[in-house]
Amino acid sequence: ETGVTQTPRHLVMGMTNKKSLKCEQHLGHNAMYWYKQSAKKPLELMFVYSLEERVENNSVPSRFSPECPNSSHLFLHLHTLQPEDSALYLCASSPHIKTGELFFGEGSRLTVL
Amino acid sequence: GENVEQHPSTLSVQEGDSAVIKCTYSDSASNYFPWYKQELGKGPQLIIDIRSNVGEKKDQRIAVTLNKTAKHFSLHITETQPEDSAVYFCAASHPDSGSARQLTFGSGTQLTVLP
Questions:
Q1: Are A109 and A55 in contact (CB under 8 A)?
Q2: How does DSSP assign B56-112, residue by residue?
C-alpha cells in the first residue's frame, strides 16, 4: 500500500460508545494531522504531531483524544460524542512540520446518533 | 488570525469552457497559497500552489494568480473536462515557513462540468 490509509471509512456510534479512528501513512513522513470536515465549512485542524510529539491542539474538546505511537500511525479515540460531532474526519501527513503540502487520506465518515 | 473567503460556493460550466475560483485572505503576512481538489468519496489532493514571491504559476490546464496588494488569489482551469468536477479548496499559510499547521482553508467550491 502507498499513501495515507484511514479505517474505518464509515462509523456509526451512539453518544455513550467508545470508538477509535486509525490512520497509517506509508510515505515516510514525519508529521501527521487530524482535520474535521463538516458540510459547507472550511477544514478545521484538530491535532498536529511531529515525530510522535503533539505540537498543536486547536481547542478540541477532550472527548477527542489523539494518539501517535510512531511516525507512521495516528489514532483518534472517541468517547461520549455529541451529534454535532458527526463529520468527515481526515488524516493527513507531510514530509515534515515545516512543509505546507499535505497528503490526505480518504477520511472516516462519522455519524453520532 | 487569518480569514480566507472563497467564491463562488458552486460553479457550473460547459465542457471546454474555463472556470475561475477566487479567494481573498486577511493577513498580509501570509505567503503560501495552495489549492486542493477533493473528488467525491476521496480526500483533498494538492493540485497547485504559489508563494508570494511570484504572481502566476501554470501547470498544463491549471493556473493560479496572486495579487498581494489586493490580498486575493484565483484558480483558473481552462478547457474543462468532466473529470474536473470536484470540490476545490483554497488555503493560505503564515508565516514564512508555509507550515501545514498554519494553513487556513476556504469553505470550498463545488465545480460541475456539464457535458
A1: no
A2: EEEETTEEEEEETTTTEEEEEE-S--GGG-EEEEEEEB-STT--GGG-EE---EEEE
**Are A101 and B46 inside 8 Å of each other by CB?**
yes
- Cβ contacts (< 8 Å) between B42 and chain A: which residues? 106-107
- pLDDT level of residue B48 (50, 70, 90 thresholds): very high
| Beta-carbon separation of B100 and A102 below 8 A | yes
C-alpha cell at B59: 501547470
Over residues A45-83, the pLDDT tens digits come to: 999 998 877 877 778 999 999 999 999 999 999 999 999
Establish if A105 touches chain B: CB-CB under 8 angstroms.
yes
Residues of A in contact with B41 (CB under 8 A): 106
B-chain CB neighbours of A90 within 8 Å are: 43-44
Q: Name the pairing type of β-strands B72-77 and B19-25.
A: antiparallel
CA-nearest residue of chain A to B41? A106
DSSP state, residue B44:
-
Do residue A99 and residue B99 have CB atoms under 8 angstroms apart?
yes
- Among A106-110, B44-48, B51-55, B58-62, the range scoring the smallest mean pLDDT is B51-55
- Does B8 sit behind a cis peptide bond, omega within 30 degrees of 0 on the bond before it? yes
A107 in contact with chain B, both atoms CB, cutoff 8 A: yes
Q: Which helix (H) or strand (E) holds B28?
A: none
Model confidence at B83: pLDDT above 70: yes
